[in-house]
Amino acid sequence: MLAALIIVFREVFEAGLIVGIVLAVTGSVPHRNGWIGGGVLAGALAACLVAAFAGALSQLFAGMGQELFNAAILGIAVIMLTWHNVWMAHHGREMAGEMRAAGQAVADGTKSLLALAVVVGVAVLREGSEVALFLYGVAASDGGSGLSFAIGGFMGLALGVAVCLLTYFGLMRIPQRALFATTTALITLLAAGMAAQAVAFLERANWLTSLDTVVWDSGWLLSEKNIAGRALHTLIGYTDQPTEMQLVAYVAVLLVTFMLMRLTGSQPTNRGASPIPL
Amino acid sequence: MVVMMRKLALAALFAVAMLPVSPSLAQQATEIHVTYSKGQFQPSQVSAPADKPITFRVKNLDAKAMEFESTSLRVEKVVAANSEGIINVRALKPGRYEFYDDFNAAARGALIVQ
Q1: Residue A123 backbone dihedrals phi, psi, to 5 degrees
Q2: Which of A129, A137, A240 is closest, CB to CB, to B64?
Q3: pLDDT per residue over A1-25, tens digit each?
Q4: Is position A248 within any domain?
Q5: Looking at chain A from residue 117 to 156, which residues have their Cβ under 8 Å from any Cβ of chain B?
Q6: Domains of chain B
């Protein structure tokens, strides 16, 4: 039971963090629960589909179907997150002028909510398909211990939901004015980290072979596998053995976001315009 | 405006993602066949020459999915029940690299690179 709990929790942890951040980003936007909930539900359904066809999926592209599928959906999430940030910078003018709550500007545009719903769906899909495969395998093979595994699995899932709520309520404690800058920075780093992850999948598929030298190995300091490493992996894209190309993709997303936000944002000194001290 | 921005972002991302695509580099890779059955790797120790890319072919004979994973090899791949997974590994320095089934802590194996 404990094994199932740990495995399921490990998988849903990342999705929990992302959903928590997106909930905080959308703050007081009306109908946001419907959009985010829809994203989670669509992601869960898609995860079951992917799990059911996992064998067929991995046979695609000369056995590299899984890797390319992951790279593609991560790419979609990066575009959605970047687009959301740029959209927010563009509409920051009205917000700054009227001193309205940051999230309320999103109320005018359901497009941005759709983008974030897609991000949530992708996060749930990626993590959920592995959970579904694991639990299905357990249920199919041993009937006796199946129940206790299922209980462990559900407890792992509940812990994932707890991570989501903790992230959300933690972020909601930040004052409204600072919340916008915080979530902008979080979303930018999330996108950069996902781009680096997408590169890793393309490298595993041998589709991306240049600049594949590992730049450093900080596994001795902070392993990507323990809970702190996993949290940083999701939040800022921490990797203990990044390749040159991963770093290029990471920095490229930061720069592109920064440039697009400056180009479209109202004033260059916009609080949200500088996600990280470059 | 928004459409232009989106195109810009897309173009930038594709530029990064598509630059050095070459799907046919795995030709001279060393192939390693590993079978997974009853929750164990067979063989549990495999070897490969150094400085050459490696391709693992992991055949999962069990009725449940397994996840072939290794921190030192930087790989992680779910292999569905009764199917084969192909895992590419870059050229390695000599040493011992451990791999395991992330869904089953009892299943461990190692790759010796000479």
Answers
A1: -65, -45
A2: A137
A3: 788 888 899 889 989 999 999 998 8
A4: yes
A5: 129-130, 133-134, 136-138, 140-141
A6: 27-113 (2.60.40.420)
Main-chain phi, psi angles of B103, to 5 degrees: -90, -5
- Asked if A206's CB is within 8 angstroms of B25's CB, the reply is yes
* Residue range B31-49, pLDDT digits in tens: 999 999 999 999 999 999 9
Instruction: Give domain status of residue A66, yes or no.
Output: yes
Task: State the total domains in chain A.
Answer: 1
Residue A271 lies in a domain: no
Kindly determine whether residue B105 and residue A3, on different chains, have CB atoms separated by under 8 Å: yes
Q: Return residues 245-274 of A near B (CB < 8 Å).
A: 248-249, 252-253, 256, 260, 263-264
* CA R_g for chain A: 19
The Cα of A209 is separated from the nearest Cα of chain B by a number of Å equal to: 7
Q: How far is CA B66 from the centre of its chain?
A: 13
**Cβ distance of A241 and B6 shorter than 8 Å:** no
Whether A273 maps to a domain, the answer reads no
Domain hosting residue A128, numbered range: 2-264
- Name beta bridge partners: B78: B67
Q: What is the dihedral of CA B12, B13, B19, B20, to 10 degrees?
A: 160
